[in-house]
Specification:
heterodimer; A: mainly alpha; B: about 325 residues; alpha+beta; Cathepsin B, Chain A; Serine Threonine Protein Phosphatase 5, Tetratricopeptide repeat; 2 domains; elongated
């Protein structure tokens, strides 16, 4: 909890510095979203979203030393996508399947087809259809 | 007897797969010819769960070898910025965010073979997300594509532990389709993707700026202006970025160019007026602001605020530039 508060205050200070210093300037984002300025309500939502990402990362075992840099390197849209969808987003990894993994995998597939009554490979299974 | 039964099972499933049309087919239109390409991308051996980091590193090494690009992060830093231990891998968003933090522009590839091949022919390696197994049992993997062998109809890629493996196009298509043909072009901001659309490239460059990479973003805007010199959006983005980094004459130049192209560009008029007022030219600022008209309520409010500020007398520019520099460019 302590680290997340520290990180949050850091993120807050960055976003406030970045946005408050130019009160009268239309940002490039204004051009892209067809609206001139970010309201304070939107800024608040954004801050809460980033706090959610920090907490999710802490739960998922991300190295606390880099959480702050990782969250700061995301855009608002990216942070909110992670905050709401992290459980269903795919995560690319190097692992191909090991031979043992593949054997276990085939065993489970055959077990399921046995139980469904499509196959009868093992003597100990009882199909659910009968 | 048992062996016989196992063979029978194998044969039956093979027949089923072939007859159901599941065997990989080429996804390329028969009347189109794509030429071969081979990009020399240094190979980084795979490490468990870190293929996103390795992919960024391979492309980063490639761009170092062909140009003036210098990475911002080490491989160890890329590793720690991409891995989520509980997921055992890297999210697409974080691959993009880490690449940006490394000083690269991340342009999302159109999910088509035409876009993929146009990048490869231009010498731009592309990182793709593949599903090595089934949609109901996914094994996700990032890999850089390093070229195409037209004769063998195979995609060349640094696939897991094999550099420049030739993956038949049909197999590649099956793996790639399961990620919705997801791919990203990672390149230094001095380069433009050949398949780039102006609006999407602007978004990618602005994402760099928003995440604290303003110098890289300015380079990207200038690169885009070489291809689209009259595009007021890039002129506006560049003007704002110069303004924010206190390069006032460059900012003013960009805003004025927009107004020459589009005299009613209210946002550019507003920002130019602000700049002029803050650099002691309030009268001209007011004249320009009078030309700014908009039907958008927020823009109207902004113009009104700028007008009031000019009436009060604007703050001189940047009393403490060091403060802003240190908070934005880390």
């Amino acid at each position: 909890m302590k680290t997340s508060k520290l990180i949050l205050s850091f993120i807050l200070s960055i976003t406030l510095f970045a946005q408050v210093s130019f009160a009268q300037i239309a940002s490039t984002g204004a051009l892209l979203t067809q609206s001139a300025a970010v309201s304070s309500k939107e800024k608040l939502i954004e801050t809460i979203t980033r706090k959610d990402v920090v907490e999710k990362f802490e739960q998922m075992g991300v190295d606390p030393k880099v959480i702050e840099a990782r969250v700061a390197s995301m855009t608002d849209e990216e942070a909110s996508k992670i905050a709401y969808q992290i459980d269903t987003l795919p995560a690319g990894a190097d692992a191909g399947m090991s031979i043992i993994g593949a054997i276990v995998f085939i065993f489970i597939v055959l077990l399921i087809t046995d139980i469904l009554g499509v196959t009868k490979v093992f003597n100990f299974t009882r199909p659910i259809t009968n | 007897m048992k062996l016989h039964r196992a063979l029978y099972l194998l044969f039956a499933s093979a027949v089923m797969i072939f007859s159901s049309g599941c065997a990989p087919k080429s996804p390329l239109p028969a009347d189109k010819h794509y030429s071969s390409s081979a990009i020399r991308v240094p190979f980084v051996a795979p490490r468990s769960e870190l293929c996103a980091s390795s992919s960024i590193e391979m492309l980063s090494l490639h761009w170092q070898s062909v140009g003036t690009y210098l990475p911002r992060l080490s491989l160890a830093e890329l590793d720690s910025r991409t891995l989520i231990p509980a997921k055992g891998g890297t999210l697409q968003i974080e691959l993009i965010a880490a690449a940006r933090a490394n000083g690269l522009l991340a342009y999302p590839l159109e999910p088509t073979y035409a876009a993929l091949f146009s990048e490869l022919e231009a010498g731009h390696p592309v990182v793709v997300l593949l599903n090595r197994a089934y949609s109901w049992y996914p094994l996700w993997h990032y890999a850089p594509i390093t070229g195409y062998d037209a004769k063998a109809q195979a995609i060349r890629m640094h696939y897991a532990d094999t550099p420049d493996e030739a993956v038949p196009i049909g197999t590649f298509a099956a793996l790639w389709e399961r990620s919705g043909n997801w791919g990203v072009v990672l390149l230094p901001p001095t380069e433009l993707p050949t398949s780039a659309r102006a609006d999407k490239f602007l978004q990618a460059a602005y994402d760099l700026e928003k995440t604290g990479m303003r110098a890289e973003a300015i380079t990207a805007y200038e690169t885009a202006l070489l291809r689209w010199p009259e595009d007021t959006s890039f002129l506006f983005a560049a003007g704002n970025a110069y303004y924010a980094s206190h390069r006032l004459s460059r900012a003013e130049e960009n805003y004025r160019k927009i107004v020459r192209i589009d005299p009613l560009h209210s946002l550019a008029l507003n920002n130019l007026a602000d700049l002029l007022c803050r650099s002691g030219r309030a009268e001209e600022a007011l004249e320009l602001l009078d030309q700014a008209k908009s039907s958008d309520a927020r823009t109207q409010a902004l113009i009104k605020a700028t007008r009031e500020e000019i009436g009060r007398g604007c703050d001189p520019l940047f009393k403490s530039p060091h403060q802003e520099n240190s908070s934005l460019s880390h």
